[in-house]
């Protein structure tokens, strides 16, 4: 089973998936690193300091790398909802996200672009359109440990084939940032 952990940069994907690496039931693939290492992209966008991934190549490579001796393969990336049918979308209020992204060496434009994407639910909307099962988790006020425990419950539920209550608890649309204004 492939589970994508997606979300706008700064919402907590790396923090969580680093912890999942120690779980003997989970194989973890950090997609952004793989895309860069194996040059799985069609373009380099110098202005925006990013690459344009070739998602067909990426998808094929993930299937090749999937180690079926693990019951779960976790794909960590803001692109993982392009290739996984089951995804967990991490969310963070734009105010909190601004603080997290400003600590990185992101340009003002890059911070703003990511805040807008988060405020407009871009990744969540794509995930809901493209994926079979979507869980939404707010990481604004909690701790990495809390989110890790919630994700552990979701993974357990998925393995059991019993996610009805979890789908309700973490249903898409449960967070709302539309009152966030840009200056
Ligand atoms: N669930 C969480 N609750 C509180 N803070 C978090 C949570 N997840 C991540 N953070 C904090 O947010 C920052 C960005 O997290 P990171 O994992 O690098 O995000 P991403 O991989 O999505 O870009 C880190 O400083 C981290 O400590």
From TrEMBL:
Superkingdom of origin: Archaea
Top-level enzyme category: transferase
Keywords associated with the record: ATP-binding, Kinase, Nucleotide-binding, Ribosome biogenesis, rRNA processing, Transferase
EC numbers: 2.7.4.3
Gene Ontology annotations of biological process type: ribosomal small subunit biogenesis; rRNA processing
Location of region: LID: 103-113
Record text on subunit structure and interactions: Interacts with uS11. Not a structural component of 40S pre-ribosomes, but transiently interacts with them by binding to uS11.
Role noted for this protein: Broad-specificity nucleoside monophosphate (NMP) kinase that catalyzes the reversible transfer of the terminal phosphate group between nucleoside triphosphates and monophosphates. Has also ATPase activity. Involved in the late maturation steps of the 30S ribosomal particles, specifically 16S rRNA maturation. While NMP activity is not required for ribosome maturation, ATPase activity is. Associates transiently with small ribosomal subunit protein uS11. ATP hydrolysis breaks the interaction with uS11.
Protein family membership: Belongs to the adenylate kinase family. AK6 subfamily.
PANTHER family: ADENYLATE KINASE ISOENZYME 6, POS9-ACTIVATING FACTOR FAP7-RELATED
Protein name (record): Putative adenylate kinase
């Amino acid at each position: 089973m492939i589970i994508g952990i997606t979300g706008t940069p700064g919402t907590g994907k790396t923090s969580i998936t680093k912890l999942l690496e120690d779980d003997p039931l989970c194989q973890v693939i950090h997609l952004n690193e793989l895309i860069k290492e194996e040059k799985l992209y069609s373009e380099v966008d110098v202005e925006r300091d990013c690459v344009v991934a070739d998602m067909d190549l990426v998808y094929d490579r993930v299937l090749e790398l999937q180690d079926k001796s693990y019951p779960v393969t976790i794909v960590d990336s803001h692109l993982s909802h392009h290739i996984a049918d089951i995804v967990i979308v991490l969310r963070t209020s734009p105010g909190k996200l601004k603080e997290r992204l400003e600590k990185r060496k992101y340009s003002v434009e890059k911070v703003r672009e990511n805040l807008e994407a988060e405020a407009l639910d871009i990744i969540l909307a794509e995930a809901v359109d493209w994926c079979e099962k979507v869980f939404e988790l707010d990481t604004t006020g909690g701790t990495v440990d809390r989110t890790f425990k919630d994700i552990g419950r979701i993974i357990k539920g998925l393995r059991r084939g019993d996610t009805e209550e979890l789908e309700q608890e973490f249903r898409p649309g449960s967070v709302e940032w539309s009152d966030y204004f840009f200056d």
